[in-house]
Write a structure and sequence with these properties.
The complex is a heterodimer.
Chain A lengths: L2 E3 L4 E5 L4 E3 L2 E3 L5 E8 L6 E7 L6 E3 L2 E6 L4 E6 L8 E9 L9 E2 L3 E6 L1
Parallel strand pairs in A: 2-12
Antiparallel strand pairs in A: 1-4, 3-9, 5-6, 5-10, 7-8, 8-9, 10-11, 10-12
Chain B lengths: L3 E4 L2 E4 L5 E7 L5 E7 L5 E8 L2 E5 L6 E7 L2 E6 L8 E8 L7 E2 L3 E5 L1
Parallel strand pairs in B: 2-11
Antiparallel strand pairs in B: 1-3, 3-8, 4-5, 4-9, 5-6, 7-8, 9-10, 9-11
The chains are: A mainly beta, B mainly beta.
């Protein structure tokens, strides 16, 4: 069975601070994919990143960066110089590597990030 | 242009009624999904279809019946609505299994 744990329920930071959202996963699969999604107050789910279990290189996209550590089964997400617009619930998710036509996402419980002025 | 669109955005109805939520995607994806997000924000998959064929069917009451008339549409029909069905229902689509799933804006279902 697959499981994703986001231990931080809620984080509050002041604008311009850096913040890291933790994600720890469990899977018996040797190949799998990890994702991060953002759910702003308006409610939609926005895809941020997909990472293959074979690729442990860290990734940076603007103020966002992701640290994948297979040894600790973690896929953490850092926002540098946070902004009020970053306020949202962030979900980490896991799916097995499927050559099939569909694969279900197993989501963590989400971390609510509040960025204030 | 909206990639994955769901209608209606809000649905308020009484216990025992039957209702449908429609979903359409214009991304050219072959696979579509329904997820349920409960009041604690927990997201869980319900169904997945690939090119009109049911691929994933999680443990969902048979009051919920998905229907896919073509690969661009996946509708969700719910019979005999119960209080516990109150949630936000998200439709999503992807190219194949491990590709990113793109979500609609959600339908907030409230049962009175």
């Amino acid at each position: 069975a697959q499981k994703v744990t986001q231990a931080q329920t809620e984080i509050s930071v002041v604008e311009k601070e850096d913040v890291t959202l933790d994600c720890v996963y469990e899977t018996r699969d040797t190949t799998y994919y990890l994702f991060w999604y953002k759910q702003p107050p308006s409610g939609e789910l926005v895809f941020l990143i997909r990472r293959n279990s074979f690729d442990e290189q860290n990734e940076i996209s603007g103020r966002y960066s992701w640290n994948f550590q297979k040894s600790t089964s973690s896929f953490n997400f850092t926002i540098t110089a946070s902004q009020v617009v970053d306020s949202a619930v962030y979900f980490c998710a896991l799916t097995r590597d499927s050559t099939g036509t569909a694969s279900k996402l197993t989501f963590g419980t989400g971390t609510r990030l509040q960025v204030t002025l | 242009d909206t990639a994955v669109s769901q209608t209606p955005k809000y649905l308020v109805t009484q216990m025992g009624n039957d209702k449908s939520i429609k979903c359409e995607q214009n991304l050219g994806h072959d696979t579509m999904y329904w997820y349920k997000q409960d009041s604690k924000k927990f997201l869980k998959i319900m169904f997945s279809y690939n090119n009109k064929e049911l691929i994933i069917n999680e443990t969902v009451p048979n009051r919920f019946s998905p229907k896919s008339p073509d690969k661009a549409h996946l509708n969700l029909h719910i019979n005999s609505l119960e209080l516990g069905d109150s949630a936000v229902y998200f439709c999503a689509s992807s190219q194949i299994g491990n590709q990113p799933q793109h979500f609609g804006d959600g339908t907030r279902l409230s049962i009175l």
